Each structure stands twice: as C-alpha cells, then as structure tokens.
Amino acid sequence: MITVRNLEVFYKSSRGKFMALAGVNLDVEKGGIVAVIGPSGCGKSTLLYTLAGIIKEFKGEVLIDKTPIDPRKHRIGLVLQDYGLLPWKNVIENSLLGLRVKKKITKTDREYAEYLLSRMGLSGLFTRYPGELSGGQRQRVAIARAFILKPDILLMDEPLSALDAITREEMQDLFLDVWKGDSISTVFVTHSTEEAMYLGKKIAVMTGPPGRIVKTMDNPFFGAREIKDPGLYFSIKSKLKDLIKGRQK
Amino acid sequence: MKVKNTGRYIFILFLIFILWHIASAAVKSPLFPPPTAVFCNLREVFFSKIAVHAALSIYRIVAGLIISVLIGSILGLLMGFYHSVDRVLSPVIYFIYPIPKIALLPIVMILFGLGELSKITLIVIITVFQIVITMRDTVKNIPKETFYSLTSLGAGDIVVFKEIILPAAAPELLTAVRLGAGTAISVLFFTENFGTVQGIGYFIMDAWMRVNYIDMYSGILVLGGIGLILFSFVDALDRIFYRWKN
Ligand SMILES: Nc1ncnc2c1ncn2[C@@H]1O[C@H](COP(=O)(O)OP(=O)(O)O)[C@@H](O)[C@H]1O
Ligand SMILES: [Mg+2]
C-alpha cells in the first residue's frame, strides 16, 4: 500500500528553487495498480523518484504500508525507461542485482530468476550483456529484475516508451501476466492514454509543473484488449486527453 | 583470433624493417645501418649487454605506472563521486598539471637521491594527473539513472563503488594507462641520462657517445620492443576483462 499526502518537492540550483511537485496526493491500495499519466515535464519522474527513496528531501508524507519510505527497510522494485541495467553485468547478474544488495543469493533465488527470465522470453540469453540485447529485451530484463526482488512496491517510469508499437503491446501483455501472479502495489507512469487504460486499475492524471494530481478515476478497461463498449472507452479517453491538456468540461 | 593478431603484428613489423633496409641502402652512412646488421648485433649482445638495462627500465616504468594508477585512480574516483572532494582538489590539480615536471628533475633528485626512487617519482608525478582527470571525468559522466536502481535498493556508498564506480571506470583506466605508458617511456629515456649508468636510456646515449651506432640502434629497437610489450599487455587485459564493451 502506498500513501502520498501533500507531497512537495523542490529542485534547488544556483538559479534558485524550482517547484516540481505541489501537493501531490495519491493512494495505491494493496495489490492495486495506478497508472499515472501526464504531459512531459509535469513531474511524473519526480514523483516516482520520491517514492523510490532517490529524492530524500521533500515536504509531506510518503508512506509504504503505513511507515515512512526508507529504501533500506522497504523493497522497492524500480524500472526506468533506460539505463536501468548495468552494462558490465550480464543478464543473469543484472536480474539478481536487486536481491544481492538485500541478502545472500540462494539456489532457490537463482532458479526463480531463471524461471522468470525464461517466462519473459529470455532463455538462452542469460550470459549476454545489455549491449548485446535489443531495447525490448533489455526492458524485459529490467522488469524481470524488479519482480525477482519480490518487492513491496513496484515503480515503473515509462518503461515501454522507447519501444516500437508491436513490441510494446507484447510487453504490456507480458507485464500484466506476471504482475497478476504477484499483485504488487504498483505505480506505472506513462504518457500514453492507451497504455494507462490498459494497465491501470486506477488512472491518476497529473499536470504541471508544478506537478499536481488533478483527477483519479477507476478504469473499467483494466486488462482488456477487446473493448466491449467502444463508446465509453472513447469518452473516457477523450476526457483523459482533455484533463492532460488542462481543459475542463 | 589471437594467432591472427600476432600474424598481423609480425607482418607490419616486417614491412617496417623492409622500408628501413631500403632507406639505409639508399643513404649508405654508418649513421644509419641496415636492420640486418642491428639484428645480428642484437643476437650477439642482447643477453650480455642490453638485457640488464632493459629489465631495469621495465621495472622503473611498471613500478611508476602502478603507483601512478593507485594514487591517480583513488583520487580521481573520489573526486568524481564526492563533489566536495572535487571542489577542494580540482584547483590544486589544475594548477600543478601544466607545470613542466621534467624541469623538476633536479629537485626530485635532491629530494629522492640519484637512485631508483627519483626516477620512479618523476614518472609518477608526470603520469598521475592524466589518470586523476580521466578517472574523475569517467565517474562524472556515468548517467545518474545508473545509480538510481541501487539507491532505490538502499545501497550504501561502498556497494555503489563496487557495483558501479569501479566497473565503469576500469576500462577508461586502461586507456589512461596506455597514454601514461607512452609518456613514461619518454620520461624514462630522459631521466636515465642523468646520474645513472643503468637503463636502456643510458645504454642508447652511451652507445651514441661511443659512436657505436649499431649498439645505439639495437637499444632503440629494444626500447620500441618494451613499448610494444607494454601496450599489448594492456590490450590483453582489455580483451579479457571488458567483453561487455565490445
Ligand atoms: N534535477 C533537476 N533540476 C531542476 N529541475 C528539474 C530537475 N529534474 C527535473 N526538473 C524539472 O522538474 C519538472 C518535472 O520533471 P520530471 O519529473 O522529470 O517530469 P516528467 O517525468 O513528467 O517528464 C520539469 O519541468 C523539469 O524541467
Ligand atoms: Mg519522466
């Protein structure tokens, strides 16, 4: 469970303070998945970095299962758009990195990692380095690594944005498939309305800067590839687009 | 692949020697003997006269480079990682780096004597700056997202150094070592002309004074060979350890 209350974040530089988040409120229930959508630069990554314990100075409250966020206590699975993998570690080493920082790797861990990697379509690539993989394969490793950690919360920062449309849909299905097995409380940041409507049980719309969550709504189309009610689908979609652009109806 | 590489080296060296031979035949001067004469001389005198000089020179270069790498990478990595260290040390480095340190040879000799210590010290103070700056910039250029996955796991500085800083910096360190090795060899040649009767630099200059050009060229050839061996060794390390880069 993730609780964010009145979160304010500033970036300080020589030119002064820049307000990146202005009073963000967000709830992700246990086993919930919230898609955060908003235009580029509105503060989505900033929100995620704060949830991940990377940004440590903030005002307001960030709680994971009712205790203040602490990356040493909590297990945080983080998937970024790129650079998430270490180029000098091969696939299996990268996928175990998260666990290795937390504890000693056992045989069971290794087997689970191999199982998940295979399920992500990476069998046969275990000893490859990130530089020898396609963009899609790299993101599969990054996603597998997050799940292998068995995290308390899962944070995804536009993990599929750099992929082509076909790979992207494949990866969305794969992600959801693995996610449903574990149902970890998840924040999934995206700038695509389609992706938000496929992967979010709830959708939170963010605008900015400074970043605010202007609307949180339930999403009846979570996990649905076939749209039974196109009328409703497109009305929600256009509503989302309006909210993102800052137009109210 | 290894065999092919060696073949390539031999082939190219062979071409150089042929050119040398042609040039020498054209000039016809005792100042510029043909490679065959030099090789014959090398076969006779290498073990009796040159090997001990070469070994000592290699020792000075390798010791100097190792000390340089140790000091340089520790300073450089800390400067790259901790902004506060960089702020204090950068001005110092920038100030000392451009001073022509060869000019310090007399002072170094007064401080460290005429022996090995002053020669190695000079190599260190000339090569260490390149290593410091390369290491610092390498660490600074690591995309900050690379650190995020470890930070979000609650990893401390030691883990970050071990998992990110060192592996990211190591291949660049080899590049700095290559540059340093070239510099070290030239510096050594210079220092071996002062206060010593040992080392390949001394051997070459001594042969020149004795007007023994064949010996002089033999020494130069050995000096080149030392460089070749050093560089090939660094290349080999590169291939063994940094498969992920290629
Ligand atoms: N390190 C930083 N220093 C100053 N401003 C920053 C920094 N990082 C991001 N910003 C600013 O904060 C705002 C939010 O950035 P970000 O969270 O990356 O947005 P998003 O992920 O939604 O594209 C942007 O306007 C950006 O310019
Ligand atoms: Mg972003």
From TrEMBL, chain A:
SUPFAM superfamilies: P-loop containing nucleoside triphosphate hydrolases (SSF52540). CDD domains: ABC_NrtD_SsuB_transporters. GO terms for molecular function: ATP binding; ATP hydrolysis activity. Keywords: ATP-binding, Nucleotide-binding, Transport. Residues 4-233 form the ABC transporter domain. It holds the Pfam family ABC_tran. InterPro entries: AAA+_ATPase, ABC_transporter-like_ATP-bd, ABC_transporter-like_CS, ABC_transporter_ATP-bind, P-loop_NTPase. This is NitT/TauT family transport system ATP-binding protein. The lineage of its organism: Bacteria, Bacillati, Bacillota, Clostridia, Thermosediminibacterales.
From TrEMBL, chain B:
It is found in: Cell membrane. It comes from Thermosediminibacter litoriperuensis. It comes from the Bacteria. Keywords: Cell membrane, Membrane, Transmembrane, Transmembrane helix, Transport. One of its GO terms (cellular component) is plasma membrane. PROSITE patterns: ABC_TM1. GO terms for biological process: transmembrane transport. Belongs to the binding-protein-dependent transport system permease family. The keyword Transport applies. InterPro entries: MetI-like, MetI-like_sf. Gene3D superfamilies: MetI-like (1.10.3720.10). PANTHER family: ABC TRANSPORTER PERMEASE PROTEIN MJ0413-RELATED, ALKANE SULFONATE ABC TRANSPORTER-RELATED, MEMBRANE SUBUNIT. The chain crosses the membrane at residues 58-82, 94-114, 120-139, 184-204, 216-237. CDD domains: TM_PBP2. It is a multi-pass membrane protein. Residues 54-238 form the ABC transmembrane type-1 domain. This is NitT/TauT family transport system permease protein.
